[in-house]
Design a protein that fits this description.
The complex is a heterodimer of chains A (427) and B (300).
Chain A lengths: L1 H29 L1 E7 L7 H14 L3 E7 L3 H14 L6 E5 L3 H7 L15 H6 L19 E2 L5 E6 H6 L11 H15 L2 E5 L7 H9 L16 H16 L8 H9 L3 E7 L3 H7 L4 E4 L11 E2 L3 E5 L4 H14 L2 H10 L17 H6 L4 H5 L4 E2 L9 H16 L4 H16 L1
Parallel strand pairs in A: 1-2, 1-3, 6-7, 9-11
Antiparallel strand pairs in A: 3-10, 4-10, 5-7, 5-8
Helix pairs in contact in A: 2-13, 16-17
Chain B lengths: L6 H34 L2 E2 L8 E2 L3 H6 L3 H32 L4 H12 L6 H12 L5 H8 L14 H26 L3 H9 L4 H31 L1 H8 L10 H11 L3 H29 L6
Antiparallel strand pairs in B: 1-2
Classes of the chains: A alpha/beta (427), B mainly alpha (300).
Chain lengths: 427, 300
């Protein structure tokens, strides 16, 4: 009795091994696996990535994409990427934030997109499918196509119309200038007891502050690449920021995740944040959510740092490179962009997709929240890269200045200190 | 052939054979990287560039003028002091208190206090974010109810380090307490009874009899706490504060990591690592001396 059982068991195990072995040998021959690294956390489009990968695999059954979320925004992804490249095991495709693209061009070995021109008969048409000028975000100074832009976002003003009403403010008239913004934040604090305004802050970059500074006519680094952070225009920005935090107590000094939680929980009146988070915020906000344009300084021209990333191919194996290229083409196709935009708040980069009734026309027509982001595209400028071997450290200098200022350090002194440290690091 | 060797040589060969697997792994995973780090500390290298520039003692000299490094060292000591209080002294008191409660209550306490140990530190950090958030977080709400101004736990230089200490303390407290309880269980009842007969009361009994008998356990906890103050705190720092605001919550391991993997100054980071290694080497010798002096390993 027992021996029969053992014999059956052995037989079954053998069968299983045989089947598994066959399955693997077949799949190993036909399917190429590529890894895709992205920064799309739950709030920034994790679902869009999942859907894109699923759809791509459906269309290309011979390519398997393993998507891996990387902690710590574009800085964190780049850290892991550099370590993976040093270890000889990079992902096939990865997002590189626009602020790091020059670094990636120069320092990270990658497969040029331009190389595919020889083998892909649709190459020219593919680049022309983008909105004019967009492919330039993936080109170096000589116009060589090194990467493909995937996403563009701009900062927008999200606001809680219920809190506006409770504070006696007109929810149809969001503040347009920084003076009006400060006033509105203070009113919300005074009338409702809740904080008035949150400004997106990140522990390792200055994406949103760049838009505040450049819109006021200042520079972090001027067009010659020299640091200018103690100029009156920059001082004015951080002085206002500090006043709202300390004098008015209308702006919380907390981490960005905490502000996010607070805003979505209805406890923060306004929130200046990337348009990329629009879908998640609108899904989770249980109040009358509205959006408005990024405020301007008086009547000065706004200059908004375009957030987002370009896709680079780091695969070393030729078959993987080809698969990576196919994947990138899908992500930036009309269908890929539709999946992407619908689940985030990034702006579409493929030409015509936003007016095409087959793709995004309905979405933009029916979704008034997206108007603020779309309207601001003409004001978008490049996201500033900090150049040189100590550029990463230099970026941190301004982050530290901000942290010190929001904790009460005199603005002028903090920025002068930052200026001299930047001069040393970027020299 | 072997039989011709003297007994002594044969024995030492046997010994060598037995330790060789461990020695092999140490050589590959500890000593080789250590030597490699020492070599890197004299170079300027960004980890991906094919060339490494030899810079002599420059990296070591630069350490002298890096304020963030001084802060990181100072914070490491602060972390150690805080953690000694929270996960050594407090568990000793709790353990002492637990000997006076009913067995069933004791079991309940033990489970409750031990459960944080099994939560991953990364998840615990995110969980605590909800507690610390001054707007609508648990602590924030309690603060508000008490009519106090909210504390920006993670964004104020005054509280960021304490916030990290609270998370690590919350997680490690139960584990240390369990070790102490086990140590306590190992003390023979006869010794205690004999002391009681001789008139030792509660406090004296603890101070002169139980604590010295517990000293090996306490010593072990002390060593693991010091390593926590340098290594274990890394996760919550990385997840929650990024070492900020203005380096208020950084520590030495985070600084080494930041220089190497965030700013890609591998040579400079290696120099710091070597310097820290030397500091700990001295501490280790002191610790060995201390363990001879203070800890009583004699049979009970």
């Amino acid at each position: 009795m027992r021996s029969v059982f053992v014999r059956t068991l052995v037989k079954q195990v053998f069968m299983l091994i045989l089947i598994l072995g066959l399955a693997f040998s077949v799949s190993a021959q036909d399917v190429v696996t590529i890894e895709y690294w992205h920064i799309n956390s739950a709030i920034l489009g994790a679902k869009a990535v999942e859907q894109s990968v699923a759809r791509f695999q459906e269309l290309n059954p011979n390519i398997k994409v393993i998507e891996r979320f990387q902690e710590g925004d574009y800085g964190g992804l780049l850290n892991n990427l550099q370590a993976a490249i040093a270890a000889g095991n990079p992902p096939a495709v990865a997002q590189v934030g626009y602020n790091f693209r020059l670094f990636a061009f120069e320092q990270l070995p990658h497969k040029l997109i331009a190389d595919f021109a020889a083998t892909d008969p649709d190459y020219a048409a593919y680049l022309e499918s983008f909105i004019e000028g967009i492919p330039g975000l993936g080109q170096d100074g000589t116009g060589l196509q090194r990467a493909i832009p995937l996403a563009i976002s701009v900062p927008v003003l999200y606001y809680n119309a219920d809190l506006f009403k409770a504070a006696g403010l007109d929810p149809d008239q969001p503040p347009r200038t920084w003076d009006e913004l400060r006033e509105a934040a203070l009113t919300i604090k005074r009338e409702t007891g809740e904080y008035g305004l949150g400004i997106q802050v990140q522990p390792n970059n200055n994406w949103l502050p760049q838009s505040m500074i450049e819109s006021n006519g200042g520079w972090i680094l001027d067009p010659q690449g020299l640091p200018q952070v103690s100029s009156p225009e920059v001082v004015e920005v951080y002085e206002l920021w500090q006043k709202m935090a300390i004098e008015d107590q209308s702006l919380p000094v907390v981490t960005d995740t905490e502000q996010e939680q607070a805003f979505m929980g209805g406890r923060l009146g306004m929130y200046l944040k990337t348009s990329a988070a629009m879908k998640t915020i609108s899904n989770q906000a249980a109040f009358d959510l509205r959006t408005g344009p990024f405020p301007s300084w008086g009547d000065k021209q706004r200059r908004l740092a375009s957030g987002g990333n370009a896709l680079f191919i780091f695969a070393k194996d030729e078959v993987q490179q080809q698969a990576a290229y196919e994947f990138i083409k899908f992500l930036t196709s009309k269908e890929g962009q539709t999946i992407w935009v619908l689940d985030t708040g990034y702006l579409p980069l493929a030409q015509g997709v936003q007016d095409d009734p087959k793709y995004l026309a309905d979405y933009f027509a029916e979704n008034p929240l997206t108007k603020a982001a779309l309207d601001q595209l003409p004001n978008a400028v490049a996201w500033l890269p900090f150049p040189g071997p100590r550029g990463f450290e230099a970026e941190q200098v301004l982050v530290e200045a901000r942290e010190a200022i929001l904790n009460g350090e005199p603005v002028q002194a903090a920025l002068e200190n930052a200026q001299s440290r930047l001069e040393r690091l970027l020299n | 052939m072997i039989s011709k060797l003297s007994l002594k040589t044969r024995n030492s060969l046997k010994g060598l054979l037995l330790v060789s697997p461990a020695l092999f792994f140490f050589a590959v995973f500890v000593y080789r990287p250590l030597i490699h780090t020492a070599i890197l500390s004299f170079h300027d290298w960004n980890m991906v560039s094919p060339t490494r520039l030899f810079v002599g003692w420059d990296n070591y000299l630069e350490m002298l003028e890096n304020p963030a490094l001084g802060k990181a060292l100072q914070n490491s000591a602060l972390y150690a002091v805080w953690l000694i209080g929270i996960i050594i002294l407090l568990p000793i008191l709790t353990t002492a208190g637990m000997t006076y409660v009913h067995n069933r209550v004791r079991k309940m306490f033990r489970v409750t206090l031990f459960s944080p140990t099994v939560v991953s530190l990364g998840i615990a950090s995110v969980m605590w974010l909800w507690v610390f958030n001054p707007i609508g977080g648990l602590l924030g709400t309690i603060w508000e109810e008490l009519g106090l101004a909210p504390l920006n736990w993670l964004s104020s230089p005054k509280t960021a380090l304490v916030a990290i200490v609270i998370i690590v303390g919350w997680k490690a407290f139960g584990y240390n307490m369990l070790l102490l309880l086990a140590g306590l269980g190992g003390i023979s009842g006869e010794v205690i009874d004999a002391c009681k007969v001789d008139g030792a009361d509660g406090f004296g009994l603890w101070l002169y009899v139980i604590l010295p008998l517990l000293s090996p356990t306490i010593f072990f906890i002390l060593i693991s706490t010091l390593s926590m103050a340098t290594e274990y705190v890394f996760t919550p720092i990385h997840v929650l504060t990024g070492g900020g605001p203005v380096n208020a919550s950084t520590n030495i391991v985070f600084e080494i990591w930041r220089q190497a993997f965030r700013w890609f100054r591998v040579g400079y980071s290696s120099a710091i690592a070597i310097a820290v290694f030397l500091i700990f080497f001295v501490l280790m010798i002191f610790q060995m001396w201390l363990s001879e002096k203070v800890v009583s390993y004699d049979e009970r």
